[in-house]
Amino acid sequence: MTNIEFSVPVTRALAEYASTKDLSGLPDEVSELARRALVDTVGVAIAARGESAVQILRGTLGIELPHGNATILVDGTRTNAMTAALLNGTAGHALDYDDVTDLIYGHPSVVLWPALLAAAEDVRATGRELLEAYVVGFEVQCAIASGMDVREHYGRGWHSTATIGVLGAAAGVARLLRLDVDATQRTLGLVASMASGSRQNFGTMTKPLHPGLAARDAVFAANLAANGFTADPDQLESPLGYFPMYSDHHHVRGVLEALEGPWALTQHGLNVKKYPCCYCTHRTADAVLDLAKSEGVRAAEVRGVHLTLEPGGFDPLIHHRPTTALQGKFSAEYVIAAALLDGKVGPTSFTDDAVRRAEAQELIRLVEFEEAAIPPVGLEDWEQAYAVVRLETDRGTLTRRVDVPHGDTRSPLNRDDLETKFRDCVEFSGTGWDAGALLAELWTFDERKPFTGFPALHPVGD
Question: Beta partners for 101?
Fold first, then answer.
């Protein structure tokens, strides 16, 4: 980057977009994608009700939470917007079951929806304003990602879900609070100093805390700015600001170009997860499950496993000998073992006991892996990523390659599949809530009326 780019008014441009962008003509396709993201995010947050990370966080915050209008998704009680955003963002990522966008190399909705739902309930924004705020937040996330080398940023150890997500969420909350351009600019300057999250904590409870903190900070920053708190108006593009701090190779003009381009939701899309583990394992899981189904492979007959991923494919998969459920979510070796042993990869595959079972640990030790720019089978070309699984069995060698996992924006889940996942999540939570009633509210909440939450999310036990 050259010094001349310091004069590109990125912070101001993002603030103007968030505050003044006319979304009255929002295409139906974009609105539908936003609602799909809402359904999925609420579902996976509810499913995490019993997760230790959620329980410990809830207990640490105290028996009596601050009073407020914002719903806690795991139990239906209410608190203030910042606390709800913290809890819901953490719950939404606790199972690692939430959506992904390749451009940001992270999870967009798990920061956006917890912050926006809490803020909307707090200020009684309309349902339409809530949907528009999600679109604005997603656009800002993608614009930020377009101005930097996200893979370099991620490779340094930053968790882009939080470091990029917090800016988009703050922009969306600022819009819900109806802040003017100057106040929105201060919001972005403030929240840039809150952007954080270290990938070394992948496989621990701290990873899902990252989006929880980001969602909370987005609400916090916007409210501070609304009350006159100051920040550098040119924070993002300045020499000591966000872009120079978080990426050596950045091109801030890319932010402006992205804001002027097609809708990010249709251009970049959302990958909805079929499995509650790191998205970089999903191609591998698809390959193993397909071999098990089509070839009738049983775990007991596997004598060796070789996995090949694209360069950088193992970056998030840092646990090669996992011993806990959280580590298992970031272990290609364990995902292979679970797929072979369970015939599926679901929430019950990721308990400490499941990861530690002797037969799983035995399979884990059989897995060898490598990265290669050219896949060992099939076409040399690939887009975004690929996985090639080779199983050595008593019957010989069996190989499967997957480039596009089911649920990817190029092979999306249909509405029935999405609703099945949602119902499974609600059942897994043990809340006893009516999944059908909640689905109806999520799909059809009135855009004209003030948003006050979802009645089907009544306090657990009522």
Answer: 106
